[in-house]
Amino acid sequence: MLGNEASAGVSLELLGAFELTCCGSRVPAPLGAQRLLAFLGLRPDGVHRSAAAEQLWPDYPCHRAAANLRSALCQGRRACCVTLIECVGQRLRVSPVVQVDVLRSRDVARQIIDGPAPPPAESETLIEEFARELLPGWPDEWLQSDRGRWDQMRLYALESLAQQLLTAHQYLPALQAALTATAIDPIRETAHRTVIEIHLAEGNVASAVRCYQQYEAYLQRELRVSPSPQMTDLLQGLPCIQADRYRKQLSAPPQAAAPASDRLRGQAGGSRAPGRGRNAS
Question: Can you give the pTM of this predicted structure?
Answer without folding.
Answer: 0.81
